[in-house]
Design goal:
CATH class of the largest domain: Alpha Beta
Bound molecules: flavin-adenine dinucleotide
Strand content: 15-25%
Number of helices: 12
Number of domains: 2
Strand order of the largest sheet: 8-2-1-12-19-18
Largest sheet: 6 strands, mixed
Radius of gyration: 21 Å
CATH topology of the largest domain: FAD/NAD(P)-binding domain
Length: 435
């Protein structure tokens, strides 16, 4: 169980009758589905909206992520500028930044105790190869910090510098997802848990053997849309420490609850929780043949141990403390790493956040609501709108390519540590992974 769910109660949702005419049926009770319902009901309180969730709300990635409400977008500006104007790319960044504040303001106004704190974020270089790469790829919204400036914020062993952005908040995602669902229920949205939905070829929603009647349908199941070439479920695993005494934070810093990561090729991320734990995550779990999901990939003992070892390398004082939680989940990665929000007039789908979905789902869902309600505003011109991602390769190429990329990322991190220069290996790998 994720740290977040061990600290968050799950209420019952009184759903009512499913067999009636709906304006919008949303399949998936994670952030994408729930924010979509939020934006729709905020625009038109008379809409009849049903959210169908196969398990419990937030049981997917939304209730078990790293709790970074960041302004990150999975692909870099240079790639987006090949297809979109500078204005559109800048507008995406601005709207992501504004979305963080909107999430914070929503939590405050609805009195959701999700420990939202906007302390910014540091991407920390622990060798000169990482630092060179960081300086060469710095994007809008970040500033470079020297070794001393970095250590004043976070005293990570071996840090040689970092990139800092004020645009990130740390939060407890399970508490936010439950608070959001309760708020929706109060505003008249019907939430049906333990309700598994499928889609007929004409995209009617089917539950059991019944067709659900609705003017519009939105598929918001992100990495659960598995077994296809449209996107891959890639597993991200996390661990959390016991609450740490104040003297530890006197030594390691993180006084403003900045989220942080090492600038490695194999993704890492961490936050100081409101109850003074460190919750730390990382990738490295293997991709499963055929883009399949497998629950056992969320609890790989070896990967959890690798993350604990990494955490103790960052902060050797952690050797004296226990790690009390270990969990994981899948993120959806498209072939070009771009997110998508598509709507054809009656059927819509959104996702492909590649691990950056806490804030992005808020914005993507707002854009989906605009499309459903046929609004023509700047949000409906953002890069992910009606974006058609290319397909992943067929097996066995996909299995070979993705698992080699995971292994080579680890090798590239070792190369940078040894040489002190940006990895040459990674320059060859980039065109293959598409990142
Ligand atoms: C370990 C981990 C760490 C992460 N850390 C971060 C982070 O720090 N910051 C960040 O921005 N992002 C992070 N992410 C990514 C982020 O959590 C996701 O992008 C985001 O939660 C996706 O929300 P969603 O609603 O689209 O998907 P989900 O939360 O997965 O929701 C989809 C829901 O659909 C339901 N469902 C699936 N199929 C059906 C069906 N047939 N019928 C009915 N319901 C169905 C599922 O049960 C699930 O509840 C992380 C992800 C993981 C796994």
């Amino acid at each position: 169980m994720s740290l977040w769910w061990s600290q968050t109660d799950h209420p019952e949702f009184a759903s009512g009758r499913l067999d009636q005419m709906w304006d919008v049926v949303i399949v998936g009770g994670g952030f994408s589905g729930l924010w979509c319902a939020h934006h729709l009901i905020t625009s038109d309180p008379n809409l009849k909206i049903a959210v169908l969730e196969k398990s419990t709300v937030g049981s997917g990635a939304s209730g078990r992520n790293g709790g970074w409400a960041s302004s990150l977008y999975p692909i870099d500006d240079a790639k987006m500028l090949k297809h979109f104007s500078q204005d559109i790319v800048s507008s995406l960044h601005t709207q992501l930044q504004e979305s963080i504040d909107a999430i914070g303001a929503f939590a405050e106004s609805e009195k959701i105790e999700c420990d939202f704190h906007k302390g910014g974020s540091l991407l920390i270089a622990r060798n000169h190869g990482q630092f060179t790469r960081l300086r060469e790829s710095i994007e809008e919204g970040y500033v470079i910090l020297s070794k001393e400036e970095t250590q004043a914020k976070i005293n990570m062993k071996g840090a040689v510098g970092s990139a800092f952005t004020p645009h990130c908040a740390a939060l407890n995602p399970a508490a936010l997802v439950v608070g959001l669902a309760l708020s929706l229920e109060r505003r008249g949205v019907s939430i049906f848990e333990n309700t598994f939905a499928t889609f007929s070829p004409d995209n009617t929603v089917i539950v059991g053997n019944r067709s659900i009647t609705s003017k519009s349908v939105v598929r918001a199941i992100e990495a659960y849309h598995a077994n296809t070439r449209e996107q891959l479920p890639i597993y991200s695993l996390m661990v959390a420490t016991e609450p740490l005494p104040d003297r530890i934070f006197d030594e390691i810093g993180i006084h403003n609850r900045e989220t942080f990561a090492e600038c490695a090729h194999l993704v890492t991320y961490a936050q100081r929780t409101a109850d003074n734990r460190l919750a730390i995550g990382g990738r490295g779990a293997p991709y499963i043949w055929g883009s399949r999901r497998k629950d056992s990939n969320e609890t790989l003992v070896g990967i959890h141990e690798q993350i604990r070892i990494m955490a103790r390398r960052w902060f050797p004082v952690l050797r004296d403390f226990e790690f009390t939680h270990a969990w994981g989940g899948a993120v959806a990665v498209t072939r070009d790493w771009a997110a998508y929000v598509r709507f054809d007039g009656t059927y819509g789908e959104l996702g492909g956040y590649a691990g950056d979905g806490v804030t992005l789902s808020y914005l993507a869902a707002a854009a989906m609501a605009d499309l459903v309600l046929q609004k023509e505003i700047p949000r409906t011109r953002l890069p992910f709108i009606q974006w058609k991602n290319p397909m992943w390769e067929r097996e066995p190429l996909r299995w070979l390519g993705v698992n080699s990329a995971i292994k080579l990322s680890e090798a590239a991190d070792t190369e940078e540590r040894i040489t002190g220069r940006p990895s040459v290996l990674m320059k060859f790998l980039a065109p293959i992974t598409g990142q």
